[in-house]
Amino acid sequence: MTKSEIMKTITILIAIIILGLNPLVAQLKTYTEKEISYKVDNVTISGTLTIPDSENPVPVAILISGSFADNRDAERNGFKPFKEISNHLALNGIASFRYDDRGVGKSSGKHTYQYEIKDLANDVIGAIEILKNEQKINHQQIGLIGHSLGGLIAPMIASTNQDIAFIISLAGTIAEPDKVNINYRKRVLTQAGYPKEEIEKVIGLEERIVETTLSGIGYESLLSDIKAQSKLDFGRLPEASKKRYSGWEDYYNNSWYGSWAPFINTPFLKSFLAYNPIIDLEKVKCPGLYLFGSRDSQIRILDAGSLLIESLSKAGNNNFTIRVVPNADHYFVTKWAQSDTKFASGFLNILFDWINQQIEK
User: Fold this and answer.
1) Are residues 341 and 239 in the same domain?
2) Number of separate domains in the chain
3) What pTM did the predictor assign?
4) How many CA atoms lie within 13 A of 340 on its CB side?
5) What element of type H or E holds 19?
């Protein structure tokens, strides 16, 4: 055995331990990765195709990231969720394709927020067409796995594309997006003990974000008021909490407002706020798995469950599963740790088991 073969074997064994794979299955599986690039309009999209070694064509899942401008691993604070999902699927005989968002990594184009949702959906459609040319891919078993915004884009595509064999929505936006964020902020502020008058003031800012983005009017004054509110929030922090930041700007950049400010008045947010996911969900006929984290206060099954059942029933679709992952947040992580962030227990196996059931059917 060569040195590279030994290292590959060691890597697989480590993955078996970390990812909780079935050793009897995983020990027989190896995989290869290759770079794939393709054009969508004038933009080049680059990503990684992970293919299990197999004598027969294998199913494939295209991974679609959330609303931030993400690299192909959907990396967040050193954690690489899409890479882990790809590894787990590959070791269980399922291929995957993950890609850099527009303007990120090896993908060209402007910043992701300068495009509408339909443009980002076209990147996925482009990947579908490329995968149809791969001999090792079963062209009848092309599926989509989308997280958050990606969980909205997946059914959007499946509603009109007959090539989609299955979709998995991970904390996908189901209700109307403009209401989701406002309701989320109300819950967070109420739980934090903000007085009613202060909550109404903050929700007023959230409503202005929607109005300004859709109309394109009042951006500068809105941004000024957002920063003023952020300074007020920073001033209220206990001294021990303030010490975690170098100053207000550091706090702002890491706060809700700081993360949302770049979205305001962009083509991306305008198209997102104007879109109603229900319209497309009512046309989705392929099998679907809709997962929610029990600790996710942003996208909750309480808000989405009945909407999903009603919408998919209107589509005449009775092959769908709605499930809550215990002790999981919006990213299906139990806890964030600098060097030891992990998916919630059982999460990866839920994905594989469900896909495998669709394949067997």
Assistant:
1) no
2) 2
3) 0.88
4) 0
5) helix 3-19
CA distance 184 to 205: 14
Cβ neighbourhood burial of 28 (10 Å; 0-12, 13-18, 19+): exposed
In sequence order, what are the residues at sequence separation of 6 or more whose Cβ sits closer than 8 angstroms to the Cβ of residue 206? 181, 182, 185
Q: Are 150 and 170 in contact (CB under 8 A)?
A: yes
Q: Which domain holds residue 258?
A: 178-272
Residue-by-residue pLDDT tens, the chain, 361 positions: 554 444 444 444 444 344 444 443 444 468 999 999 999 999 999 999 999 999 999 999 999 999 999 999 999 989 999 999 999 999 999 999 999 999 999 999 999 999 999 999 999 999 999 999 999 999 999 999 999 999 999 999 999 999 999 999 999 999 888 888 888 888 888 888 888 988 999 899 999 999 999 999 999 999 999 999 999 989 989 999 999 999 999 999 988 888 888 889 999 999 999 999 999 999 999 999 999 999 998 899 988 999 999 999 999 999 999 999 999 999 999 999 877 899 999 999 999 999 999 988 7
